[in-house]
Automatic annotation (TrEMBL):
InterPro entries: DUF7931 (IPR057691). This is DUF7931 domain-containing protein. It comes from Dyella jejuensis. It comes from the Bacteria. Residues 18-166 form the DUF7931 domain. Pfam families: DUF7931 (PF25559).
């Protein structure tokens, strides 16, 4: 008996700003409690649309196991530009954590890549974050596993982005 994989489990090519935004929203909507994101930079149109922010807020407040981990190459630039994700991170710092890659990781070629990985085996991977082209799947464990391993290694070495913490005055 042969099992035919569902179209959701097959990685597909993604290209262009609108297609990337659509798959990001699908992945966020499919996330239950855990999300892992790596971005060398945080452009104004990434994770800032009202529907994306609503999904991120839902995930961050989804319960005890909620965890959004973001490794961001240049958090200071996102703060200076007033990115809406930073505001959300300051409101829910216990569940939306932002770290910066260490210098060794920041200088490697892999940091031009971008990932968005969720806990329902979905992912978006851009081999070059500036090209706006990559691959995505809504449910592909074998495709997700190596990306999650690389992310976990980066996260483990990354340092907290203390410049983004609210001042609590």
């Amino acid at each position: 008996m042969t099992v035919t994989p569902s179209p959701e489990s097959q990685p597909r090519a993604i290209e262009g700003r609108e297609e990337l935004a659509a798959i990001r929203l699908q992945l966020l909507a499919a996330t239950r409690y855990k999300l892992a994101i790596y971005l060398p930079a945080l452009p104004a149109d990434v994770l800032s649309r009202p529907a994306e922010l609503a999904e991120l807020r839902r995930i961050a407040t989804s319960g005890r196991g909620a965890e959004i981990r973001l490794v961001l190459g240049d958090p200071a630039a996102a703060l200076r530009s007033g990115h809406r994700l930073i505001d959300l991170a300051q409101r829910v710092p216990s569940t939306l954590q932002i770290r910066m890659p260490v210098e060794d990781d920041a200088s490697t070629i892999r940091n031009s890549r971008a990932w968005l990985l969720n806990d329902s085996l979905g992912y978006l991977f851009l081999p070059d974050a500036e090209r706006l082209a990559g691959r995505a799947a809504l449910s592909d464990g074998p495709g997700l596993a190596p990306l999650l391993l690389q992310f976990d290694q980066l996260w483990g070495r990354a340092v907290p982005a203390t410049s983004l913490q609210p001042l609590g005055l």
